[in-house]
Amino acid sequence: MSQQKPPKKYKKTINTAARLSGSAIQMGVVIYLGVWGGKWLDGHFRTERVFLPICTVLAVGISIYLVIQQVKKIND
Fold it and tell me: Contact at 8 Å (CB) between 54 and 41?
């Protein structure tokens, strides 16, 4: 018996899903690091939640930018 190769469209779909899963993990890591960095800066400078929201918003913006770049690469 010979094994059939999966169609190219199926292989491309799995590749796209894997890339998007990687982008989701990357997004979570970037946001986590932004929150952690904001907490650290607040503790280091002894401020009361000044850097936490700033770093969190910056991290969300950066992660959205990175996801958009990945989607552009996938569509090309």
Answer: no
22-41 core/surface letters (b: 16 or more CB in 10 A; e: else)? ebeeebeebbeebbebbeee
Residues 30/59, Cβ–Cβ less than 8 Å: yes
- List per-block mean pLDDT (blocks of 10 residues) for the chain, which spans 76 residues: 69 85 95 98 96 98 96 87
Closest CA to 63 of 37, 32, 42: 32
Residue 7: strand, helix, or coil: coil
In order, the DSSP letters of 7-52 are PHHHHHHHHHHHHHHHHHHHHHHHHHHHHHHHHHHHHHTT-SSSHH
Could you say which DSSP state residue 45 is in?
T
